[in-house]
Design goal:
The protein is an alpha/beta fold and 257 residues long. The protein has ten helices and eight strands. An eight-stranded mixed β-sheet has the order 3-4-2-5-1-6-7-8, sandwiched between helices. The N and C termini lie close together (12 Å). The structure holds adenosine-5'-triphosphate and magnesium ion.
Length: 257
């Protein structure tokens, strides 16, 4: 199952991705899980509490630097890529991890996005769950990198801009061939019950309805998440009683059925 996590910058994609990795690992003890950081800003490894190895971007660059002559190198490149990707997949007891990094410089054989498409195709054979933490924005979807998603989680916080992004992401995802029934809205940092209540919940409901995306999960503002992030502790280790963890366990149960 390919699970892709998208959304506007700063809404909580990496938080959702990392806790989802943990929760699916807790629920499906023997399942092989691969976490992929598709964000060039690359902080998924920190959230997962692991050390990343060489990124795919660096692998591509190393090959390009060593093979200036592009002629007849395609097969060599694919072989090199396959070998280096497997060498640079980080392994933990519960999941494996690949960092895409960046790399689109002149002379490169193909972009990180092209290679991500290849990695997703290849790796889905070996893993029961592949979880992709996307960069903010639309690139992965518009370039059809993640078209094969079984589940596209579109994360937003309560801000209008987050919902607007969610709508755009949905449109682009539909155009690039993601099935509509694979798309779900995740609302994050919801300050439930603490505001001037009625109007704000009415506005929120209206915003949700306008996206025409099915809300699958509402995660409250969680002090533990904020605290772990601020102090640089891996999010994956937050207490099981944390509000975010409780909600993501429910989400993981739904997804893994
Ligand atoms: N439920 C939550 N409660 C409190 N703080 C949260 C919650 N979810 C995320 N945050 C905080 O919001 C910030 C952004 O979260 P995160 O890095 O997961 O977002 P992102 O969408 O991956 O961002 P980027 O687009 O930069 O990759 C972090 O400081 C995190 O601690
Ligand atoms: Mg992130």
């Amino acid at each position: 199952m390919l699970i892709v996590i998208a959304g506007k910058g700063g809404v909580g994609k990496t938080m959702v991705s990392s806790l989802l990795v943990r929760c699916i690992a807790e629920l499906k003890k023997d399942a092989k899980i691969l976490a992929i950081d598709a964000d060039p800003a690359a902080n998924f490894a920190d959230a997962l509490g692991i050390k990343s190895l060489i990124s795919i971007g660096e692998i591509i660059e190393n090959f390009a630097n060593a093979n200036q002559d592009k002629e007849n190198n395609n097969k060599k490149f694919l072989d090199y890529l396959q070998q280096k990707i497997s060498e640079n997949t980080a392994h933990t007891e519960k999941f494996d991890f690949i960092e895409m990094g960046q790399g689109e410089g002149a002379g490169c054989y193909c972009s990180v996005n092209d290679v991500l498409r290849f990695v997703l195709e290849e790796k889905q054979k070996d893993y029961e769950f592949v979880i992709v933490d996307c960069a903010a924005g639309l690139e992965h979807l518009s370039r059809k990198t993640t078209t094969g998603a079984d589940v596209l989680l579109i994360v937003t916080d309560l801000c209008e801009a987050g919902f607007r992004s969610a709508e755009t992401i949905k449109k682009i995802a539909v155009n690039s061939g993601v099935k509509e029934d694979a798309m779900f809205l995740v609302i994050n940092k919801a300050k439930i019950g603490s505001e001037k209540v009625k109007t704000s919940s009415e506005i929120l409901n209206e915003r949700i309805a306008n996206t025409k995306i099915l809300e699958i999960c509402r995660i409250p503002y969680d002090e533990n998440v904020a605290e772990y992030n601020a102090s640089g502790n891996p999010l994956i280790n937050i207490p099981v009683s944390s509000k975010a963890h409780i909600k993501i366990i429910e989400l993981a149960k739904f997804l893994t059925g």
